[in-house]
Every structure is written in structure tokens, then in C-alpha cells.
């Protein structure tokens, strides 16, 4: 855990422990809430295009939550969880490799009232109007094909205030985060704080928001640059809006500007527009369409190095506990198609997923998959998820 957060977390935990030890006639007006749960997922993947075609793995995420309410309906709560992960890949009777890790997944504490909250620690921060191809994926990296929607958190202090007219204001500060997130090409200097904010307001039939974030990038570990700089100031500006009419419509955009000339990586522009609708066919057919434009330019909004993607997503519940889904990407630049289908079956606390994919060997949208992409090429995956 980054050192700057340690004394603050200890102080908040100490304040929470004072409330825990108060007698029955104290300021506590309701019972404490504690829950211990976990999620176990096991999967097997077969891809004939890989040098190690069979990959089996498992993940366990144990979590504990504790909350207390004080007089005035204030809430002090915390959550801690870990990510225990392991894989075993092999070519039958020939070659094998394994990998695994254990790291914190969430570790935060929060103070909240009816209109205000402040949360400190390792947490997930996400926002925006887009569904899958999200330009405002600034602090998370969720693969839309992952049925568990897992993503690493960031070390941050986040404050939010909610007005009575549904407008809200966010302020955040981050520290101790290094790895590139989603659309980032260059890691963050983890010794320099990041900061930003967001304001969201209601508009007729929907809502609109403006977001800003500042960080310092650090390219000292990258060999693609001639100059190795530990402080590259970077500003991000985001705008998003959504309208719910007969169908849902949204627009989302992000402009990232570095204050140092890095050639085509000086400016990054990402724009997304989409629509979704649920048709009254059978149990209800949900369809969403998105189009994304991504460009890296030396001059802002030059769009000299433009890449375009379209996406069609379908989801149909075949019964109370079954669901079919499909995601189709089309890359206009290389004229390639990415296909992904899934079937989901619910058994009380157990969920079965059967997933098939037919994609190019090199996946262009690295921001959605991270450095390792299990769904390149052609293959099938089975996944069992148990929640307790």
C-alpha cells in the first residue's frame, strides 16, 4: 500500500474502532453490518492457434465488509478483498507453463451520508455513458467479454456530493499507481500525485457530464523513446451525455494532451456514439450498437492516425436462468471481424458460462484486454463461478 495512505487509513480505522467499542447506549442507533463472502471461478480454454493450446485456471476473491451507522444516519464502512489467481497452460505430452499471483483486490474505507461520501484506499473508479467501447475508461480496464467484469483498482481518495436535482460533483486524488490503464500508452509516475474531478448535471431526458484529470507519465522503462523522462505532464478532458427516449442514445469523448512533444503520442482523441434498445420479441431482445474513433496525433484533433471500430452486442434471456449473448467487433482500418458468443446458466450460487470466439491472432483493441489476451484466434472456454 502506498505510504501516503497508510497514516490516513490508520486514523480512519482508529476512528471506526472507537464506534465499534461504544456501549449499547452510545451514539450507534442501528446494528453493525458484517459480511464475509467470496467468489471462486474455474475455467478451461482451448485454442488450437496457441503454442500451448490448453489453458486451465482458477481465481478466488475472498471479501469482508463491515459497516456501522451512527446518529444522523451516517455510515462508516470498509471493504477488503484479495485476488488469488493461478493458471496452467500446456501442449499435451510436450510443453507446459504455469503462472500465479496473490494481491489485494479492494481495500477501502468510506464515510457517507445521504448526499455525500468520501472513500479512501484501493478502489474501482469508473464513470461515463458508453457501454463497452468507453473513452472514459480512465481508471479501470474491464474486458467486455469477461462475464465477471473484473478490473484492478487504483489507490485513491474519492469524494462525491449529490444534489437534490440529481446533479453530482466528484473530486479525486490518486497516488502510488504505476501500471498503464486502458487507453494509456505510458505508465504513471507513482511518486507524483494525480488529481481531477467530474461534474454531472441533468438535461432534458437524460444527463451530461464534464471530467478532467491530471497526471505525470513516466517513460523511463520504455525503449520506444529516445528521451527518457520521469515527468511528462498530461491533461485529460472528457465529455459524456446520455438520453433515454424511445431508445437510449449516448455520446462520450476523451482528449488527452501531453505538455511535452512526444510526436504522435502528444495528443490522443477518442470518441464514441451509441444506441441501445430492447425489442419486445419473446423474452426481450436487447441490442446495442457503438462506433468508436481513436487517433494519436502530434497536433490536437488532426486525426492523421485514425482507427475506427464498430460494435454490435445482443443479449436474449432464453428462460429464467439462461441467457444467450453475442458481441461482434468490426475494425474498419484493417477490415477484420471479431466474434464472441456466450451462453449463461444459473444454478442457485453456481453459474456456468460457455464461450466461443473467432478472432484474428492479433487483437487491435489492447486497451480492452491488457497485455495478455486469451481470446485471440479461435477457441472455446468453459467457466464455472461459485459465489458464497
Question: Gist?
Answer:
The chain is 4% helix and 56% strand. With 388 residues, the protein is mainly β.
Q: What this model shows, in words?
A:
- The chain has 388 residues and is mainly beta.
- It has a single domain (6-387), classed as Porin.
- The protein is built from one helix and 18 strands.
- The protein has an 18-stranded antiparallel β-barrel.
- The two termini are 27 Å apart.
- Mean pLDDT is 88; it is low at 3-29.
CATH class: Mainly Beta
Radius of gyration: 23 Å
**Count of distinct structural domains:** 1
| Proportion of residues in β-strands | over 45%
CATH topology: Porin
SS-derived structural category: mainly beta
Helicity level:
under 10%
Q: Please state the overall shape, judged from the principal axes of the Cα atoms.
A: globular
Main beta sheet: 18 strands, antiparallel, barrel
User: First CA to last CA: what distance?
Assistant: 27 Å
Task: Give the H and E element order.
Answer: HEEEEEEEEEEEEEEEEEE
**What average pLDDT do the residues reach?**
88
Tell how many strands the DSSP assignment holds.
Answer: 18
Amino acid at each position: 500500500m502506498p505510504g501516503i495512505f497508510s497514516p490516513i487509513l490508520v486514523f480512519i480505522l482508529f476512528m471506526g474502532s472507537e464506534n465499534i467499542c461504544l456501549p449499547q447506549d452510545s451514539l450507534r442507533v442501528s446494528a453493525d453490518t458484517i459480511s464475509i463472502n467470496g467468489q471462486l471461478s474455474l475455467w478451461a480454454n482451448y485454442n488450437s492457434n496457441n503454442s500451448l493450446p490448453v489453458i486451465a485456471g482458477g481465481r478466488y476473491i475472498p471479501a469482508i465488509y463491515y459497516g456501522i451507522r451512527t446518529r444522523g444516519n451516517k455510515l462508516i464502512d470498509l471493504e477488503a478483498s484479495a485476488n488469488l489467481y493461478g493458471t496452467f497452460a500446456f501442449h499435451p505430452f510436450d510443453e507446459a507453463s504455469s503462472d500465479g499471483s496473490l494481491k489485494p483486490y479492494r481495500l477501502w474505507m468510506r464515510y457517507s451520508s445521504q448526499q455525500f461520501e468520501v472513500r479512501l484506499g484501493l478502489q474501482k473508479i469508473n464513470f461515463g455513458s458508453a457501454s463497452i467501447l468507453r473513452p472514459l475508461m480512465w481508471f479501470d480496464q474491464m474486458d467486455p467479454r469477461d462475464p465477471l467484469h473484473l478490473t484492478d483498482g487504483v489507490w485513491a481518495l474519492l469524494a462525491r456530493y449529490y444534489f437534490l436535482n440529481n446533479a453530482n460533483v466528484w473530486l479525486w486524488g490518486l497516488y502510488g499507481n504505476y501500471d498503464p490503464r486502458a487507453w494509456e500508452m505510458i505508465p504513471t509516475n507513482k511518486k507524483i500525485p494525480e488529481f481531477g474531478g467530474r461534474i454531472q448535471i441533468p438535461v432534458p431526458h437524460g444527463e451530461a457530464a464534464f471530467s478532467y484529470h491530471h497526471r505525470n507519465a513516466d517513460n523511463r522503462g520504455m525503449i520506444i523513446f529516445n528521451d527518457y523522462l520521469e515527468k511528462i505532464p498530461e491533461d485529460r478532458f472528457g465529455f459524456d451525455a446520455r438520453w433515454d427516449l424511445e431508445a437510449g442514445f449516448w455520446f462520450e469523448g476523451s482528449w488527452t494532451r501531453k505538455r511535452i512533444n512526444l510526436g504522435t503520442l502528444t495528443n490522443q482523441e477518442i470518441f464514441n456514439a451509441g444506441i441501445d434498445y430492447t425489442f419486445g420479441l419473446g423474452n426481450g431482445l436487447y441490442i446495442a450498437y457503438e462506433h468508436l474513433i481513436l487517433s494519436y496525433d502530434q497536433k490536437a484533433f488532426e486525426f492523421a492516425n485514425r482507427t475506427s471500430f464498430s460494435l454490435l452486442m445482443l443479449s436474449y434471456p432464453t428462460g429464467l436462468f439462461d441467457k444467450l449473448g453475442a458481441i461482434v467487433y468490426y475494425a474498419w482500418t484493417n477490415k477484420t471481424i471479431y466474434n464472441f458468443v456466450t451462453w449463461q446458466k444459473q444454478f442457485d450460487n453456481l453459474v456456468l458460462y460457455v464461450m466461443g470466439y473467432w478472432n484474428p491472432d492479433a487483437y487491435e483493441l489492447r486497451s480492452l484486454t491488457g497485455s495478455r489476451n486469451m481470446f485471440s484466434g479461435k477457441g472455446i472456454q468453459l467457466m464455472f463461478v461459485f459465489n458464497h
